[in-house]
Amino acid sequence: MRILVVRTDKLGDFITALPAIYVLKQHNPNNKIIVCVAPLNRALALACDFIDEVIIDKGQSVFSLAQEFKNANIDASITLFSNTRVAFAQFLARIPKRIAPATKIAQIFYTNRVSQRRSEVKMAEFEYNLELTKELFSEISLEYKKPLLVFEGAHDVYADFCKNNTIEKEVVAFHVGFGGSSDANWSLDEYEILIREVLKKGKYQVVLTFGPDEKGLYEEMQKRFLGENVVFYLSLDGIVFFAKLISNFKLFVSTSTGTYHLASLVGCPTMTFFADTLFASAKRWKGVGDEKLQQWFMIPLAREERNTLFIKVRKNIIEF
Prior knowledge:
alpha/beta
């Protein structure tokens, strides 16, 4: 069976789709798994050995997208997060079985509409995605390996990184950027306090990571730690290289953004900060990796409660 899985939003959102894609392939290795993703997720999709073909939603007309779907000879589709455009394109492509959550006006273009009520957050985003696969195969196993993605040559990437940056200790990384769908984060001053606690202990090498569009933040943090034993990494080598690199880190500290999901995907322990709301919480956006490797903190809006939580996080950093 040729199965299309559609998830055309951001990095973290696409990563929450990967367990569902994996179990579809495991259910029957003869299944051909085609994904439709945003351009930024192309490289990561191509790196997954359980994905056979990749269609890029680059904003082409709905008729062009429909033709690409039609050319792929798809037997069934599962749209994990829908909008009217991708729904209509599948309708025009005449995909025989079209599965999606029963939300928004887009649902009229699907043959199988599954009521999930994700806003109630009864499970995590990736778990809702897994549940949708049951509409195609009722007996499917939803179990998947953890870490889900293991890259050949990842240790060599890390070894070269350590050699080039004179790193001789295990790495605790901080990603201080604020992107994706994250709704809460510490200030740079607060991050500086946490980073200095790690430096003070001298047990780990501190690495600060930045996305390719965070050059200003990269320069700001360089000024704050001028002349100190901190490695600054501006990720210009692509998402797959970055995934290989962070898979070797001892801990990845960040807000709930795409890089956090990437770290969990490749098995790196995480310490992550979420907004103190159900919609943006860890309950909804926990990583796809082993829960034992994830630490979650919900940052309250109230100043006094926020300060109390920061003291707790600082203690955890000191004791790590």
